[in-house]
Amino acid sequence: MRFSEIVCELRAKKSLSREKLAKKIGVSPDVIAAWEEGTQYPDQEHLLLLARAFKVRISDLVNEDRELMLKVIDGTETQETVIMAGLSVLLVICAGALVGIQHVDADLVGTASRVTEVLLLVGFAALAFMRRTPNARRAAAFRDAIEAAEGSEQGLLKVTAGRNTRLVIAQFVLGAIIALTLIVLLGVLMPESQLPWVML
């Protein structure tokens, strides 16, 4: 990435050692080394402090990597959307199966409920894990960097940096499907409770 080269160049131009720059920004010299080697990426706060230390705009630090950043963000959001779609399909199938089993053989509802609970736990665990992968954290740092760069140009931060509108809409729709299906599942799994129907 060009960002790491820019940090090295600006640090050399300002005659700053890693230690001096680290002290100015409030990080360890190892963090500066990781930024210069491209193994880590700073958050918005540290980008701002870097820009101030070098007396440049944040956009001067990150704009050359913008296209690569957007690709990483888009790839991560696509993976998350695919997992949400899989979870939505799984939930709808489980809800349909439970409703069908309830009318055909009430004795199987308990077993089917346990299987559904396990599948739901696995699905939500996969989604939670995906959001904590190194690639997802990198995409979040890139999104922050783009927002900070756009904010430094325009005076306020944009919330849409790196957002693919179609993926955002798809995630919203899938989230609504998941929520409604969970309400139906709650009604099937706990019929004595009036909670799911109150929620609707």
Automatic annotation (TrEMBL):
The keyword Glycoprotein does not apply. Pfam families: HTH_3 (PF01381). It comes from the Bacteria. InterPro entries: Cro/C1-type_HTH, Lambda_DNA-bd_dom_sf. PROSITE patterns: HTH_CROC1 (PS50943). Residues 9-61 form the HTH cro/C1-type domain. CDD domains: HTH_XRE. Keywords: DNA-binding. PANTHER family: DNA-BIDING PHAGE PROTEIN, TRACRIPTIONAL REGULATORY PROTEIN-RELATED-RELATED. This is Helix-turn-helix transcriptional regulator. It comes from Paratractidigestivibacter faecalis. The lineage of its organism: Bacteria, Bacillati, Actinomycetota, Coriobacteriia, Coriobacteriales.
